[in-house]
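Hello forum,

I keep getting stuck at the same step: I have a sequence, I want structure tokens, and every attempt I make locally crashes halfway through. Rather than fight my setup again tonight, could one of you with a working pipeline run this one for me? It's a single chain of 248 residues.
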Amino acid sequence: MAIPRKQRVGIVGIPPLSVMKALAAPHITIYDLDEPQGRIDIETASPFLPRVYCGILRTVIANSLTIKPDFIYIDTGPGKCDCAVHTATVLEDTLPETRIVRTKNRDSTDFGTPLCKSRMGLLNKMQAITASVQSPMPYQELQPCTPTAGFWGVPPRDFSLLSLFPDTTHVYGWARCMENKTPDNLELELHYNPDVPTVFFAQSFCAKTALARHLATKHPHALYLDCDVTAGNSAKAKIQAFLELSGI
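Reply #2:
Ran it on my machine without issues. Output:
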């Protein structure tokens, strides 16, 4: 039997489970274009997206221009953002040899969120959550821990800020929707624990900054924070001070 040639496929956001099942083949290499892929300069995206676009979508453009996948599956539904719709158009016009496939993830079957509630370094935990998007397999059960802190929001472009949190940090917001494979689940995204000090985070210039700040005002013990491409010393100092003043 002839083996299909190796194909490189990029994904943006969380494509539907049916798409990820179809991509789970040995001849396909998947690239998560939302995440930095090696030493690719984000400024590569500057001629194609304005700087008021978030660092994640600018990373998508920079990765795509460098990797040039055979296919890019991009979620342009409400589970991602309106800016992804326009980014898909930019990619289509800029990379004519790459097939851009627009998807809309309306999946509603809960896969569960064992990683979000587990005892694990937050940086490693978020890496595992983002990696889980590529697997259509059911999750293994993990022993949940009692939370001492919370991180609400999207996976940051700069994961280094996550190293400041304790291993007993629970993950909320869109990152929890990500692990659950239901990015359009607003009810789950709105959930937080008022009993634990929580950092409400969004990438600068992302529409979710409005929700992050709004929920932070409702939470009795919260810090609202947004960062652009990298987490500078100021952002890290705010997190560290917030956690220390919270007795963590």
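The two ends are 59 Å apart (CA to CA). If your local run keeps crashing, start a new thread with the error log.
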